[in-house]
Structure formats: structure tokens, C-alpha cells
Amino acid sequence: MNNIEHPLQTGGTRGYLRIATEEAFCPPSLMKRFLQVLQDKSIDDPGFYSLWGFYGGDSERACLLRERIQDLGDHRIGDMNATGIDRQIISMTCPGVQMFPAAEAVIMAEEANDALFDAVNKHPGRFSGLTTIAPQDPDAAAREIQRGARQLGFKGVIVNSHTQNRYLDDPDFSPILQAAEEYGAPLYIHPNTPSKQLIPAFLERGLDGAIYGFGVETGLHLLRLIVAGVFDRYPNLKVVVGHLGEALPFWMNRIDFMHGASVRAGRVGTRRLDRKPSEYFQHNIYVTTSGMPWTDSIMYCHKVLGADRVMYAMDYPYQYVADEVREQDNLPISLQDKKKFFQTNAEKVFNL
To answer: Which of 6, 102, 148, 298 could in theory staple to 136 by disulfide, Cβ–Cβ 3.0 to 4.6 A?
Structure first.
């Protein structure tokens, strides 16, 4: 690839700033709670024990991950500088607080948001935040979305896919969707390990995490929102998903065809929508490149979704590779579209 060795600098030296839109953190208090659960087995969530059983271990990768993900200061800024990242949009790592009892989770979400607020205030030119919520208590989650938008200045909401095996198309979660639309807060649906309904076959072959299970889980979640008519009820709701749309852009033609056929046949579980499923990607849904720095896949999404719908993300600290930034600097698109990709799409979507 041409110019693969170019220096990675901040400040827009290539004609654009680099805004990374899916960058994780975990407060030390929550990390301590994760490690406690690994010991006392107090939570019924097999995906958690698989994922954090690894990242809670002693491997070099696990130790580096735990160090980086808890830092909201000089270490993170140094990593950003080393890879030319001007700004991170920071959000709670999976599963966040969503596996805990509701009362505990509400408090933990508030504390995490307060910690992130302090970090953003210390580094206002480098950090922006997404609001952590506890969907287990939808009304409290809606209030926290309001607090995040009105008081903390956060730029959206993070949900780590299913909440104790339930998805956001469940009517009980309507207050969350209503608040996200009302306060103009983009809803970032981040992966989690598959729900208990799905996970056994993934665990048997170690496929429950980022290698495959994450994408299946989150793609399913987004598709449920679409076919349940969520975007018809909340037409101004914005949803962002990483990993180039969790593969759904590659299935859009087939999804449209089979959904239409199922509706016409009156198949159980289907409903008529205001648009084709794929058309919600042009009105409500944005994708980021987190964990998917493959030029061919990015260019496909750029073509079928449009230059205004695809944004850059690193997936820090889970995927921290300088050459992946260089590869995306070299995407075969115009400078105008590259600026959209790295900078102005994120500024528009997250109201930066």
C-alpha cells in the first residue's frame, strides 16, 4: 500500500482530524467488581465468565488491556498521540453495568458517568463521552440520558447489547428510546457476548467474543429494532453500530427480499414497516469501522451506505494497531470524503 509508513500526527496535518468513535473505558471500581464476580460466581452470565475470565487473567494482552482501559489520563492521551488520534468518543466497556441487579447498576452508571465527566473536563479537546445507563431500570435510564445530555454534556448513549438476555425492542425499554430521541442522543449499540438463548454453540468453539459472537449478537439486536418498527415509532432516533454494521450491510438485499416475502405471507413475528429494512440505514443508522480496518469492507460500506454514514473508530484499547490507522488514511476516496470519514460525520452525528 502506498505511503504505509507515513507519520501519524495529530492536528489535521493530512487535511482532517481523526476522531475515534468507539473507544472503551472501565472505571477502577467496576473493574474491581468484575474481578470479584469472577471469584464469587455471583452473576448468572456465561458470556461474562468467558470474556472477562480471559481479560481478568495474567496474559500480556489481558494485563495491558486492564491497564489501558481504566486510564482516562496521560497514558490514554499518550496512546492517542502515538497513533495520530485527535479525539476519542469514550464509552463504557461491555458488559458495563448491565449484568448487575437494577438498584446497584443505577448507582454504578451514575458513578461511571461522573468519572467520565471529570476526565472530559480535564481534556475537553481530546475526550468526549457517551452516557452509561442501566437499562434494567428503564425510567432511571431515561433520567440518566437526560442528565448526560443536559448536565454532563455527553454526546450520546452507550448500550452493550442485550441486558440480561433482553433486547431494546422489548416495549419495557421504550422510555430509553424515547429519551434518546427527545434529547438528540445517538444510541451506540456496542457488542456483548451472546445472550443465554444463543451462547452455548459459540462457547463450544471459543467463538463467543470478537471473533464472531459479538457480531452475531449485535447484528441480531439491530435487526430486531428494525423489524419491530422501532424507527417508525421513533423516526428521529439515531443508532450507531461498530464493526461496519455488524455485517448487516452485506445482507441488506436478502433481508429486504425475505422480510417482504414474510410480511406478505403473514409469517408469525413479522410486521409491515414504513420502509424497507435497508432504508433505515439511510435515515437512522450509522456504522463505524471499529475492529474492521479492512479496505475492501470499508469501501463496500462506503458505496452502499454512502459517504455520510461511515465513521472511523479504532476500538481502543482492544485493538490498538498504528498501521491500521495508516491503512485507513490511505483509503481510495477523495480528501473530501476522507474528511467526512475521519472527522465531520462524527462531528455531525455526535454534535461535537
So the answer is: 102
